[in-house]
Give the backbone structure.
Amino acid sequence: MANIINKPRGTQDLIGPKARNYNSIIESLNQTAELYGVQPIIVPMFEESRLFKRGVGESTDIVTKETFDLAGKGGHEYTLRPEFTAGVVRASIENKLYASPDLPIRLYYSGSFFRYERPQTGRFREPHQWGIEFIDQNLDLNTITDAMLLMYEATKSLGIKPIFKLNYIGSSESRAAYREALVSYFTPKIEEMCEDCKTRLKTNPLRILDCKIEDDKKIIKDAPRIGDYLVEEDREKFDKIKAILDALDVEYIEDPLLVRGLDYYTGIVFEIYEGDHLNLGALGGGGQYDGLVKTLGGPEFAGIGFSLGVDRLMLTLDKPETIKGPRVLILNPESDITLFKLQSRLRKEGQSSFMPSASKALGGALKTADRQNIAYVIFKDGDLLKVKDISKREQHEYKEEAIDEIISLIKGE
Ligand code: HAM
């Protein structure tokens, strides 16, 4: 065992109950999306690097520091996806989904993505997301609020008590005025701030608001607020979104410093949290993107979407891992054909069963049954089939021909 190979830092092996927990979260989220009339999409795990540079933005940490880039193959530069939105928008353009008479385009997705971050609780290098993107020629309040409601209800259905953090970063007109205000505010202070903020001041001053360095945060807290720079139309839209959320009993707080870590956002931006697990960071985030479809070569369509961090949902749900194993254990040291037939029938009848390794003795099998919550242990004794009901501590005996009776017993008929 000297030469074992470990998984890369920041990745996970999800085994048994953990993998089951992952699957059941995805299944529940898929069901909520279907309830909202949303279609599934599966996109590649790697794309041309320029998709993410153009899509996610060259002033973001995600693109400048955190991508897993694949050495050129066939003259292409490829990158493992650091998120889904750029890929889903690329697929919507490439497959001309925008030409459908039935807009908006409404898609949901899930899978792992890759960011070279410093691993810690709730932060991985190959995390998993579940999310949606809604894309339309005229992205209206119905679509915007439906996307947000879906995020809220999907997390609630998982048993989480979600709360939104909201901000409105507005149209390009609002943001131009705000950008100027930020530049005036930060320029005299920038020498005291980190190297990243110095670069951000030149490339995208809004991103300074997302700096995680404590000393910088003290300067940031008194920075101008976007709310004071929104044009009238933006202000009205934000008020209407909040009025709809209020009417639907969606809980939220406004956070005027919320800007998100990706460049494509315009309009509404939001993150979702659970009060008891703030240390994990946001369970999910999203927002509106007016320019992304065009930036990626598509028509002038706008979109809204969000992604939930499935790993953080798993940590938040923190369920005692319910041990759910097979219902029936069949001890078959001699590889007896009757027992194979019985196992096949049980499985056809929807009763999960398995045979442990042939070396297992009855005593060991009963201990396995206890550990794995198995309901019945079956073994052959001479010509008889014996069935132990573990919880009732009873034993039943059957002739080999009596498979139907065994099935009835196990099905509780
Ligand atoms: P994001 O905020 O970068 O947004 O990621 C969304 C969520 O994914 C986060 O709130 C977090 O729960 C989870 N997440 C991100 N990075 C990690 C990590 N390293 N480890 C564990 N969990 C992580 C986006 O990715 C956007 N594409 C969301 C979006 C969709 N906007 C519009 N449409």
